[in-house]
Amino acid sequence: SNAKKLRHEAASCIASDLGNDVENMVNKYQGKLSDAGLSKDNNTAIVQRLRHLFSVQDDLDRQKKESSLAIKEQSTEQASSLNLARKEPLDAESEKMRRALVSKCHRVQNIMSTVESRLALNKEIFSCTAGNQQDTLRA
């Protein structure tokens, strides 16, 4: 009777321990599945964010390249404003104004070169005249 009683207690202990072990294993497995699902969701969110950042980076790289070209074009050409104006189609009135401005610009440049040559001539004349006056005073 004691043996039966011990056997019955042992069977119930083993069954409850085995049940507890199985339940713990099931809980751990469900926890791992949950963690895996969260990791997958996090990875998906990270991948989407990376794709967005790469597209932003590509756009910024393109803008930087275009800006660098525009700056280079502006800084290397003296008449870059005229070149930019020529790239865009103009209506009749704007084209008339552009031509008038270009004409005035050429006239001003011609006047400036004339003034510079006359200044140089005056400088030469007065330097020669001053030299001749000194020679005349010495004599």
Distance between the termini: 160 Å
Order of SSEs: HHH
Class from secondary-structure proportions: mainly alpha
Shape: rod-shaped
Q: Count the helices. How many?
A: 3
Over the alpha carbons, how many angstroms does the gyration radius reach?
Answer: 47 Å
**Largest sheet data:** none
What proportion strand? under 5%
User: How many beta-strand elements?
Assistant: 0
Regions with little confidence, pLDDT below 50 for 5+ residues: none
Question: Can you give the helix content as a percent range?
Answer: over 70%
Mean pLDDT: 79
Describe this structure as you would to a colleague:
The protein has about 140 residues and is mainly α. It is about 95% helix and about 0% strand. The mean pLDDT is about 80.
Q: Main attributes?
A:
rod-shaped; 139 residues; single chain; 3 helices; 94% helix; mainly alpha
How would you summarize what this structure contains?
By secondary structure, the protein is mainly alpha-helical. It has helices at residues 2-76, 80-87, 92-138.
List the helices and strands and how they pair.
Blueprint: H1 2-76, H2 80-87, H3 92-138
